[in-house]
Amino acid sequence: MKTASVQHLNTTINNELYASYQSGVTKLTNINTYIMNKLTNVSPFLLLLIPVFVMMVFTITTSTTLNNSSEVAMKAAPATEMAKLTTYQAK
Length: 91
What we know:
Blueprint: H1 4-39, H2 44-70, H3 79-90
C-alpha cells in the first residue's frame, strides 16, 4: 500500500519527465523547421549528391586502413621445402 508521499513523489516525477519530453520535442521541431527553411533554396540535385560524397569518404578511409594492414612482408619458403612439395605433388 502506497503512502501519500510516495504517490505525490511519483506524480511529480512523471510530470517532470513529461515536461522534459515536451521541451525536447519542441526543440527538435524548431531545429527541423530551421533546417527545412534553409534547404528550400538548395537544389535537389545537390541534396542527392550528399550521400555520394559521404560514401566516397567512407570508402577512402576504409581502403587506406585496409591497405596499411595488408602491406606485411612475407618470408619466402626455403628452396628445400619447395622441392619437397613439388616431389610430393608429382607422386
